[in-house]
Structures are given as C-alpha cells and as structure tokens.
Amino acid sequence: MQIEVDRSSREPIYRQLATGLQQRIRSGALPPQTRLPTVRQLAQQLGVTRLTVHSAYAELQAGGWVEATVGRGTFVAERIDELIAPPEAQLGREVSPAGMVSDILRIGQLPGLISLAKADPAHEFFPMRNWQRAIELALEAGGPQLMGYTTAQGEQSLRSVLAEVVRERGVSAGPDEIIVTNGVTNGMSLITDLLARAGDTVLLEQPTYLGMLNILPSRGVRAVGLPMDGEGLVIEALEAALRRERPAFLYTIPTFQNPAGVSMSPARRAALLDLAERHGLMIVEDDIYGRLGHAGASPPSLKAADRSGRVIYLSSFSKSLMPGLRIGYVVAAPELIGRLVYLRQAQDLCSPPLMQRALAIFIEQGWWQSHIKRMLPRYRERRDALLSAMERFFPAEVSWTRPQGGFSCWVTLPRGSSVSDLYMSAITRGVAFTPGEVFSPAPNPQPHLRLCFSAEPPERLADAVATLGGLLRERGGRHGLAEPALSDYVPVV
User: Fold this and answer.
1) Which of 48, 87, 88, 375 makes an SS bond possible with 52, Cβ 3.0 to 4.6 Å?
2) Measured between alpha carbons, how far is residue 461 from residues 54, 389, 467 in Å?
3) Which domains does the chain show, CATH number per domain?
C-alpha cells in the first residue's frame, strides 16, 4: 500500500496515515469491504511503530471509515456514501447555530481540510501516556466498582480536587458546592432548565458561544444579545435591557470571550456585579478559557469577586486538556447544586466514574498543570502565526481582534460581503471557518467570521489564510470592497 509519510512535518504520523487512507477510500482505490493490512504488516511496510498504525486505524474507525472485527481484521466500511461525498455537499446545509455545530463536528472527519472552524486543543499534543497511566492507577485503586454507577453530583475524589482547581481562579468552594457535568454544554443545559422556563428571556453578549444559542431555543427561551466593545460587555446596554426585560439570567464569557477573544475590563466586572446585586440578576459565568492566557496571568474570574452569590460558575477540561473526556463542572450555592443534581438524575444519571477518578489522579499528579504550561507557548505561536498571516494576505478593508487568550479571532468584513458564499468557496479549496452570523441571536448588518488557530500548526494556518485572502480579494475585485463600518457590537481590540 503506497502511502507517503513526511517525517519532517509537524503533523503527527498517525494523522498523516489516517488522512492518506481516507483519501484512498474516497478515490475508490480502497472500495467498501476491502481488508486493510494488519497493524504489524503496515507498521513494517512504512517503518513506523505499531502504536502509530493502531492510532490511525482507531481514528478511522471513530469516523466511520473502517470497521474492525476481532479475529477477522480491519475493513473499509460497507456504507461510506456520505463520507466520500465532496465536502461542499456535506457542509453548509443550514447556516444556524444547530447547523453549524453539526458542520464543525463533521469537519474533523473530512480529509484534507484545514480547519479554522473548531476551537479545539491541539490533538497531536494530547498527553496520552500520562492519561493512560492515570487510567491504570484509577483501575488499580477502584477496580470493578468504577465500571458501575456513581452519584449524579459526581465522584467525591474529583469534586475535592476541583475545589482546589477553582481556588486558583479565585473561587472559594467546597466539594458540596460543585457538580460534575458532561462538558460545559451539559452544565449550560442544566442551568437553563433550572433558571428559565419556556417564554423567558436570557441576556447574553453578542456575539456569543453558539452552543448556548443552540440550547436556548430548544427550551423555548428567547435570547437577547447585548453589545460588546474592546472592554467586553457594555454595561449601559445591560442596564437599559434590565429596565425593559425580566431576564431569567445573564450568560457571559468575561475572560477570553468566544468568539471575540476579548476580556471584560476590571471596571466593567465591578459594575456588572453591582448591577446584578441591585437588580437581583443571576449571572452564569463561562470560564472555559480562563487558564489559556497567552501573555502572563489571566484575569481573575468574575465569581472571585462575587459577594452576593449571584454568579454561577462553570468550566470544563475540553480546552485545557482533551474534549473527549466530556468532563465539566458547575460551582454554585449548595441549594442550587442540590436542584441541579435532581435535574441531572432525570437527564442522564451520572458521568462515567472511571473518567472522573482518572482525571482526579491526573490533576493530583501535577500532569494537568504541566500540560497547560507546555501548551501555552504553542498556542501563542499559533495565534501569532494567524495574526501575521492576516496582516500579509488579507485586504486592508478587513479588520480583526488580537486575542490575549483562548483559541479564536473575530474577523470583520466590509458591509455587503457574502460570508455564506465565502464559506462554501473556502471549503471547495480545502479551508473551513465559522460564519459569524451563527454567533448572534439577532441579525447583524456587519459580516464576520471566526478563525480558530489552536488546532492547526503555523504553516497550515498561513496556507489557510492565504487561501481566504485570495478569495476575499477576488470578491473585492468583482464587487468592490466598501469601507468597513463598525456595528454596534463589534469589539475593537
């Protein structure tokens, strides 16, 4: 089997191998039900380790490209029609929060695409050896008990460790004030079910995390966007909204906001907490990027300055470690935690005990902190590569934020630009991003895109931006690029 492996590339060899096999399946060189070489055979042929081939096969199996049967081997999947359709036929069917979540998840399964769409940690640097050791230590200590159920609130060992974790963000909480969730999105869903009812209003920044915009309409809850600038949420706009609305809560990402990349200033944070106390407003703080600052210490969490208990804090390990763990957590008053536990029991009972116990060990061993310390310079390098490439390749009429943390950059195009056309054209040329309109609850005349830099190496980021820059200039030459006009909520950094 002829598959080229570039040992000088920063892309892991197992991913090169998986991509090469995907391309052969897509081309028809490996038809459905074709038996692939054994792990041993392919490792010998390519001069790589068996673990490399096993990892490539595992990734293909997770994406539905191959099927493995014990005793028979690994075969190209029988039904791969949808997988081998061209990317443009699979993506962009629905430009909405729900449709874009589907696209973002699907993009990772398409070979050859350079994805600036996913705010993912860099897969090639996952600490697999230490994670495997944590799993082994958890099984040695817990045995078969870890294959059963646990409490809906989460493993005591993990909640005790999380109490120390949040203390580093300035949050004082005991294990009884924490509930473990299946990622931060599960936490958002539980909090929405607890605080809001169909017909209620939730205030949030505009733009904001598209996952929350996916959750609210599914509950019949109305989302009302509030403007932002370079210092974060505009407090005067919030105060005006509180005079008009009776919101169930405010959802905010005050530190390294997704998608804008900005952080709320200390003065705005103080004013927000004061306003919340005066109006009885509950605040849901999403701090998922709080540890991912690119230039020194991150701002303290909003919850750290909360003296009235009006801030519910949530985060997860999806960005600082590995999203596949599906472990997040919520910090709130014990009475609220108790109600969240009942909701959790009704929805999906509990999170897997083995993963929780292994994560507790992983953190206690210091492996999580060392992983973050190792990754921050790499993310800073990738951010700088993206910013440098945009300076070089984007037209002068395009502007963007310069994030000090997190994984994303918010790009502003001139009025009249068609982001949906750009999205599909970019995909046909092997580049994916996220259209800005899916991050806003209300239409915005100013077109935007979100570019994420965390999951791709610097040279691929430069290639992707060069492609996007060429497409933008093509459109400028045909239609003319108007002078950019700032919308009411475009952050200026």
Assistant:
1) 48
2) 28, 8, 10
3) 13-76 (1.10.10.10), 87-125+374-479 (3.90.1150.10), 128-368 (3.40.640.10)
Q: Residue 305 — very low, low, confident or very high, per pLDDT cuts 50/70/90?
A: very high
Helix, strand, coil shares, percent, the chain, to 5 = 45, 15, 40
Helical spans, DSSP H, in 350-411: 353-364, 367-393
Residues 6+ apart with CB under 8 A from 5: 13, 16, 17, 20, 46, 48
The partner residues of 232 in beta bridges, in order of sequence, read: 229
Place of tokens 């006009």: 485
- ∠ CA(191), CA(183), CA(223), 5° rounding? 40
Alpha-carbon distance 408 to 399, whole Å?
14
User: Does 352 sit behind a cis peptide bond, omega within 30 degrees of 0 on the bond before it?
Assistant: no
Please, where are the H alpha helices in 108-195? 128-142, 156-167, 183-195
Which candidate, 148, 486, 183, 167, places its Cα nearest to that of 330?
183
Residue 196 DSSP one-character state: -
The phi and psi torsions of 216 (rounded to 5 degrees) equal: -60, -50
pLDDT at residue number 78: 84
Condensed to tens digits (0 to 9), the pLDDT of residues 378-423 reads 999 999 999 999 999 999 999 999 999 999 999 999 988 889 889 8
Number of Cβ within 10 Å of residue 374's Cβ equals 11
Structure tokens at 381: 């390098």
Distance CA(225)–CA(441), nearest Å, equals: 6
- Which residues have a Cβ under 8 Å from the Cβ of 244 and sit 6 or more positions away? none
| Residue 202: closest CA among 248, 238, 234 | 248
d(CA 227, CA 439): 13
DSSP, res 489: T
CB proximity list for 479: less than 8 A, separation 6 or greater? 416
Q: Answer for the pair 122, 463: CB distance below 8 angstroms, yes or no.
A: no
What's the chain's length in residues? 493
Q: How many CB atoms lie within 10 A of CB 466?
A: 15
Rounded CA gap, 347 and 350, in Å? 9
Q: Do 240 and 389 form a contact (C-beta atoms < 8 A)?
A: no
Return the structure tokens found at 431. 């580049």
267: its two tokens = 């003065």
Nearest to 62 by CA among 48, 83, 47: 83
pTM: 0.81
At residue 392, what is the residue type?
Answer: R
Q: How far apart are CA 66 and CA 57, in angstroms?
A: 8
Residue that has been written with the tokens 């449709």 in this structure = 99
